[in-house]
Amino acid sequence: MRELNLKFSILNRNLRDAQRAILSVRPLAPQRSAGRGPGRGDFELNASSPRPAPPAALGGEGGIGRNEFPGLKSLWAQVVSGVQHLCKMRFVSVTRLFFRSALLLSFIALSLCAKADVFSEGVENYRAGNFSQAATQFREAIAKQPSSGAFQNLGNAEWQRKQIGHAVLAWEQSLWLNPFDHNARNNLKFARETAQLESPDLTWYEIASGWLPMNWWAWLTGISLWFSGGLLVLPGVLRWKKPAWQQASAALGLVIFLLCLPAHIGTMTRAQIGFVLESETPLRLTPTTNGQIVTRLASGEPARQIRSQGRFAFVRTRHTAGWIQKDSFRLLTE
Predict the structure, then answer these.
(1) Which of 36, 102, 155, 279 has the highest local Cβ count within 10 Å?
(2) What is the pTM of this model?
(3) b/e map 13-39, b = 16+ CB within 10 Å
């Protein structure tokens, strides 16, 4: 009897499930078959038509929305808070950068003003005939910021003080920074003709290095090398095609590099040229104060430093070589 009741209960449950399934089925919208015109019998059931999803698969609001993924709301809140924090950090960093830039610009402006004041005072003293004070102030301006004009004025003041070596050195340093300074070049020519001094013995690449300021050759050499190397290497690494203009540009950059390289080497070798500061400076055979005197050099005479030892430097002039005290000789870049 129990088995019979159990079978009837299972049968009733299956009937209820079948009834629910029949009631839950909705009619599918008819779809027009491709290539057929309107009329009776021209609609057919598409087997691939989407069936309604069960209610449990939909969101609580009856569709796809925020509640479809339970963690989306918290994730969105975290993203918003992170963006706000980033904006605050960026604002703080921008504020710090602004204040640091303002402090740096104010420091530069104050230093330029101080340099301008010292330079102006030197000009006033030079015009007033105080050449020693003017030379001191021009040296202070150069110590703060070297410039071609300050070196030129220093040479003028030293020439008025009868310091030929210091004047020649200052004018050479002016041309070292600015080869286009015709006043310094004319002053050098006049001073060497007056004092019967020789010009430095330069090679062809050192002469070429004097056509442009000293830093220009280094920049041109480096930029042309990287430019040509990048155009030659990057297309192969990135698997790009090499058009004709790219190869021509690489060749042009390589030509510029080869032309600038000797002049760049000339700036490095020309930096070893110096000038005698004092008149009748002894050139000795050994680097000692009691060494045998080979000859005496005139103030403003150029020489090339080969090496140094203690307080002496071994230099070579057009006619001889020997040891000279460093306090009586100064290089072009010092």
Answers:
(1) 155
(2) 0.65
(3) eeeeeeeeeeeeeeeeeeeeeeeeeee
- What whole-number distance in Å separates Cα of residue 197 and Cα of residue 317? 12
Angle at 232 between CA 231 and CA 233, to 5 degrees: 100
pLDDT at 298: 94
Report yes or no: 228 and 257 within 8 Å, Cβ to Cβ. yes
* Residue 11, Cβ density class (10 Å: 0-12 exposed, 13-18 middle, ≥19 buried): exposed
What is the rounded average pLDDT for all residues in the chain? 77
Separation CA 312–CA 333 (nearest Å): 18
Closest-CA residue to 276 (of 200, 204, 208, 219): 200
Q: Taking Cα atoms as reference points, which of 208, 171, 207 lies closest to residue 300?
A: 171
User: Residue 181 half-sphere exposure, CB side, CA atoms within 13 Å?
Assistant: 24
β 302-309/293-297 pair status: unpaired
Angle at 331 between CA 201 and CA 197, to 5 degrees: 45
Q: For residue 54, what is the DSSP state?
A: P
pLDDT tens for residues 108-131?
Answer: 545 545 556 899 999 999 999 999
Distance, in Å, from the CA atom of 303 to the CA atom of 321, rounded to the nearest integer, reads 9
- What pLDDT score was predicted for residue 208? 94
Which 8-state DSSP code applies to residue 243?
A: -
Q: What is the pLDDT of residue 184?
A: 93
Measured in whole angstroms, the distance separating CA 279 from the mean position of its chain's CA atoms is 45
Q: Burial level of 52, CB count in 10 A (0-12/13-18/19+)?
A: exposed
Which region among 57-61, 66-70, 231-235, 315-319 has the lowest average model confidence (pLDDT)? 57-61
Top pLDDT among 87 and 58 is at: 87
pLDDT at residue 18 greater than cutoff 80: no
Is the Cβ–Cβ distance between 175 and 209 less than 8 Å?
no
How far apart CA 122 and CA 134 sit, in angstroms, is 4
How far from 151 is each of 80, 154, 278, 293, 331, CA to CA, in Å?
Answer: 60, 5, 19, 33, 15
Alpha-helical (H) ranges within the chain are 2-24, 72-128, 131-144, 148-160, 164-177, 182-195, 204-209, 214-238, 244-270
